[in-house]
Amino acid sequence: MSNRNIGIKDVAVAAGVSVTTVSHVLNDVAYARVSPETRDKVRTAAEELGYGPNRLAQALRTQRTGMLGLVSEDIATTPHAGRIILGADEAAKARGYNLMIINTSGSASLESRQADVGALLERRVDGILYATMYHRAVELPANLATVPSVLVDSVPTGGNITAVIPDEEGGARAAVGALLEAGHIRIGFLNNTDDVPATRQRLQAFRDMLDEAGLDGGAAPVESAVSEVHGGYEAAWRMLSREDRPTGLFCYNDRMAMGAYRAASELGLSIPGDLSVVGFDDQELIAANFNPGLTTVALPHYEMGAWATDHLIDAIEGKTDLALMALPPTILGCPLVRRDSVVAPRR
Amino acid sequence: MSNRNIGIKDVAVAAGVSVTTVSHVLNDVAYARVSPETRDKVRTAAEELGYGPNRLAQALRTQRTGMLGLVSEDIATTPHAGRIILGADEAAKARGYNLMIINTSGSASLESRQADVGALLERRVDGILYATMYHRAVELPANLATVPSVLVDSVPTGGNITAVIPDEEGGARAAVGALLEAGHIRIGFLNNTDDVPATRQRLQAFRDMLDEAGLDGGAAPVESAVSEVHGGYEAAWRMLSREDRPTGLFCYNDRMAMGAYRAASELGLSIPGDLSVVGFDDQELIAANFNPGLTTVALPHYEMGAWATDHLIDAIEGKTDLALMALPPTILGCPLVRRDSVVAPRR
DNA sequence: CTGAAAGCGCTAACAA
DNA sequence: TTGTTAGCGCTTTCAG
Fold first, then answer.
1. For chain A, where do the domains classified as CATH 3.40.50.2300 start and end?
2. Would the pTM count as exceeding 0.90?
């Protein structure tokens, strides 16, 4: 058990050598030439005393803390943050780094976010991950540029910084593809009303897929509403009340799909018999627990967190030049998760 | 904007004073006697140079890092972790501390969890928060005792450590109380099958409340199943198929309540008309988005995180002796969140 | 093969 | 009222 009070000097005394030697063997310094016997003596002494290095002192001396700062938006409000943190934590741990986390609000002022970054900087983190809770364009605090950093789940409004984002288009194409593949030809889209990349890109992919299938994407029904359960409910109600109501429905996210389930049920439409639906986000609680289970598209939060961390560490260790890969953002896939809400349309 | 490269010495030179003076004014050292003019010179010099203290060096010298370690179980799988982290982060930030987070698994071996604590110890965190994802008894890594620490959302199996847990009993009493108050006299409980404190305490509170209301708690219907949606569905189906089916249903958690909603619907029972239900956990996604909105009991995760952090810092700063408050655990309230799933029974 | 000593950036006696 | 200086625990150059 590691004992806070004992230092390298104590180990040196116990082993009857100098601190230099202790440092050399404990850190496996390449150029050090120490006899096997001495190495053994040192190691057992360290073991017996329960020596653990003081990382602060190490850091002060080497100018490397082995700490990564993670500023994350709205940690408590979405499950997405947890996945990014987990991906980052595991990637970091695998390479001997640890995470210093600061929560911020998506709506916080630039100054307040700059102060958060500043706190991390004072602690001399080796690099910073800046994670947002949904894919959009963010204005980054200027002091972020002070240190290697990567943006997770967003693109920068100005300037350039390495970023990693989800493949909205590919995900949407997979979703619509699942419907097409099942044989649907009347397909509707329940879109979000916010002006974020996902809104535009998913719509574009929706239309493209229909066009490519020989259907008229431009004429396909689209209803928009706030991307919450009640919005999905309202939009679905409108969509499903049409004469030529679709047999397949692509929803902007799982929450809207949840609303669509309710609307369908109230309209006497069964899922998937009368209506096939596919969502986006793969929110466990909703998607897996629905009846029938919701086929949806998963967002790669864990993967983005891990990717960002790995590349950040590469940059810190000089294995990569972040500046070179600053633009464009790296895009990570959004895999389709098949459950039971898509079947062939009734004929 | 804080500049990593400039140190206290540069400020001293720029201001034409010694480093001592700089240190004194920048840290507002009480006993220091520095003229107002000098103070000004120092402050503006620091400002202009963009000086930010190197917290590592400070920490090495003062033996205080201002960092708190947080080992948290299963960050990505429950929304609870996010709330604990948020509560801890805000409390910490308010007192000038930051959080170093390590994720661990609830099922990880003692050694692996001990290594996680060890990593925090090497970084010389001033104290450690150990958070579990559900209320139970945990075996803590021995090295945790090395430093001030508090356990969040669990009680220790052996030894003593300050802990903070939710008021299971009070929460359950509030839940059953809501049903009683609405006039229900046939009330059932859908319980969890895991042997955790919540299972026992909520059941006990359920029976007690009925007894106190002059109903026979011992005879009240209880069905148990795994605490997931499908478990709730199965248990509810059994419960609601009885001749004397209850008009009020208390569910172990919101997920089980979600299953109960489905079972009720399939049995042609409307909520809340034919059946009033109350859950536990207040999982936003479920509880608020259900139709009707689920009346439930909120778990004080944010509060536990904040309470633990505040008391940990008190101990670190010598304002409290943690040992004195080690036993018994502090209990934080679980407030009832009223929505629309409880009404008076039909008569 | 091993050790002495300088110094990372800062704080806090102590001196002036 | 201000400055000198000795470390905090470690790594690393340089000399044996």
1. 65-165+301-332, 168-299
2. yes
